[in-house]
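Risk register update: the risk that structure generation would not scale has been downgraded. Supporting records follow, first protein first.
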Amino acid sequence: MSAVRSMPTPQSLVARAKTVSSLPSVFLRLQNVVNDPRSSNRDIANVIGEDPGLSARLLRVANSAFYGFPSKIDTITRAVTVIGGKQLRDISLATTVIDLFKGLPQELVSMESFWRHSIACAVAARILATYRRASNVEHFFVVGLLHDLGCLIMYSEIPDQCREVFAERDREGALLYPLERKLLGFDHADVGGLLLDSWKLPSALSQPVTHHHRPGRLQGQPEIGVTAAIIHLADILAHAMELGSSGEYFVPPLDADAWAALALPESVLPAILRQFEQQYEDALALVDLGGR
């Protein structure tokens, strides 16, 4: 008699994901010092300077074509002054998470393809946030980058169940996340949001990840709801342009309420797509996709 396979839950998957169970301590210290109103730019630079690898990555990002600053940024102190402490914290989170997921098995999804899609979503989210005149567009870049992390946890922890979802997707020609909910009782967005919660990241990051397929569920939280709506649209644009994949084959439908929440005229979409074409390759250059 075969053993009964226990049904996973998002909580159990996050708890089992030992390789990504916590963020590096240097990032947690950086988050604390950035959130402390008594901290100075020098305090922020000192924390970053404790990790030579993080310092080098942030300086490379700051001097990349993606940001296009006119003069070279050669110290972390200057990076904090030019870019800002909160923005550097968010860029630090992005680079940290990409490193954290190195070496995951690529049996179900190509990591290169996964990050190409995630970066496409991140760039589109950043541009949309710019049109919304958001104060920290890097926040939206990071949420876009992290929006499908739950897929990686699921592919790593329950590959057999994910194969069954993929097989159903191929048979029905259906979207992935509704099939995940049908067959597993939850979807990758649930897992991703819980992962960010387990890292003690703010709800302004985790909630838009949890609800990026169903942003209407955040109507009672206008600020977070708008972030979720931006990620929702950015994800659709990334899929429509067929730039990588986290396992989804089809373009998700646009939530009409999410589009209304952004209050953007349709006439801006061509300009957004032109800016995207200019920024996407520069953003890819921030990440070494080889071997991922």
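Supporting record for the second protein:
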Amino acid sequence: MLAVYVASATGEQRILAILGQNTIVGELAMIDGLPRSASVRALRDCELTFVSRAAFTDMLRRHPELYNDIVMTLAARLRQTDEDMAASSFQTVHARVARALLQFAHHLGEPGRPGHVLIRHRITQSDLAAMAGVARESVSRTLSGWQRQKILEGSLRTGLVVHQARLEEAAAE
């Protein structure tokens, strides 16, 4: 699992996406030859394969049918970016934090008791805040409220149990 992020001049980071298995990264730089637009960091142990730009363009020349896969990947990421921009403009802080936590649950979670997802991976409030585009303090208040409402159990450090349906309701606010 990879976190895709951008960093400001002051070093603050904003997570743009969480990517799961068998995904590609760096495709924009491969296509246009410009510097990368974001960085990635592993959230778990990963096995990555480097492909040079020369090998990439040679592969596309030999297998033009791969263009469709790349276009579909870029289109899906653009749609996700559009959804994220709309969420940051129109959704409440609670909904944005819920969306971010659901992404972690989707990529890093495992089935728990019925209707629940267990996230064993350590998540920081700063990561959630960066992904949701909110202040860390807002994440702290939101998580505390969800703990009281039993939407969440456990902790970000030791493992979190998420009541998936209730969190999805919060994301739809």
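The chain has two domains: 2-89, 92-171. On this basis the risk owner (M.S.) recommends closing the item.
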